[in-house]
Amino acid sequence: MKKAVSGVRPKKFLGQHFLKDHNIAQKIVESLSRHGNYRQVLEVGPGTGVLTQFLIQQPQYQTTVIEVDNESVAYLKQKYPDLHILHQDFLKANLAEQPSPLAIIGNFPYNISSQILFKVLDHRDKISEVVGMLQKEVADRICSPPGNKVYGILSVLLQAYYDIDYLLTVEPHVFHPPPKVQSAVIRLRRNQVNQLPCDERLFRRVVKQGFQNRRKTLRNALKPLNLSEPIRQLPMLNLRAEQLSVDDFVQLTQRIEPSWKP
After folding, report:
1. Contact 186, 170 (CB under 8 A)
2. Is residue 3 part of a domain?
3. Using an 8 Å Cβ cutoff, are 129 and 183 in contact?
4. How many helices (H) and strands (E) does the chain have?
């Protein structure tokens, strides 16, 4: 394992670009709204601690950071000796061990940001709020309403369980090294849906299958599900997946469910 040299910042890791603008970092931390009245905050991929320094100034939070990079962990231990650090991969972490309710915050590495949010979905009953910076293209997709070409799987699944706000566009020059794309900060706050009024596993499968061939009508896109003929004749199946709202997908799942054979 490489030792971190005193005062030397860790290098870029896992596609991450380190934020160097402290004003933006402070805005990101201040975007936490305490939705769900949590105290526990888990920062994903703190890097050099640009968000961490503002989190630990908030007495209402009990901050833990989770970081996989050896050099970053060594740097953080030196700079913040009292900080609770989990030296592991967030995607492999057992979130069941974390207190509840929980907020997630971070400058998410671009190449795993979608995976981070799918993990949030899997632990939605624990995670009441997320504030994250990610590639603007992904942020636009998550926040998109139906009928938009960027509306997709993450849009539907996240909007089913979270209220989502697009907070801020962030330009490349505030990072080191500068990325080739714009970034954005979004906030997810858990809504009142404890459970969808349909089979949630089937719901997820219908959504994913519908968008796998998004240029096709749902009648053709959902062929692998072997729908019954009465279901195949539903007018809704004349549409493409991007034209359906969360409620439309719920209604479609409800119609499929009685005759569904997994």
Report:
1. no
2. no
3. no
4. 10, 9
Gap between the Cα atoms of 147 and 247, Å rounded: 14
Structural domain count, the chain: 2
Report the distance separating Cα 154 and Cα 115, nearest Å: 10
Please name which of 115, 50, 111, 61 lies closest in space to residue 84, comparing C-alpha atoms: 61
Percentage of the chain surpassing pLDDT 90?
Answer: 88
Pair (180, 207) in one structural domain: no
Do 25 and 141 reside in the same domain of the chain? yes
Task: State residue 3's pLDDT score.
Answer: 33
Look at residue 88 and tell me if it is in a domain: yes
Q: What does the pLDDT read at residue 16?
A: 64
Domain annotation covers residue 5: no
In tens, the pLDDT along 157-211 reads 999 999 999 999 999 999 988 999 999 999 999 999 999 999 999 999 999 999 9
Q: Are 142 and 190 in contact (CB under 8 A)?
A: no
DSSP classification of residue 145 = P
> Can you name the residues that pair with 156 across neighbouring β-strands?
none
Average model confidence (pLDDT) across the chain: 92
- pLDDT at residue number 101: 97
76 & 205 share domain: no
Q: At which of 190, 225, 247 does a domain end?
A: 190
Q: Which domain holds residue 119?
A: 18-190
Residue 96: CB atoms within 10 A of its CB come to 8
- Of 123, 80, 118, 83, nearest in space to 103 by CA: 123
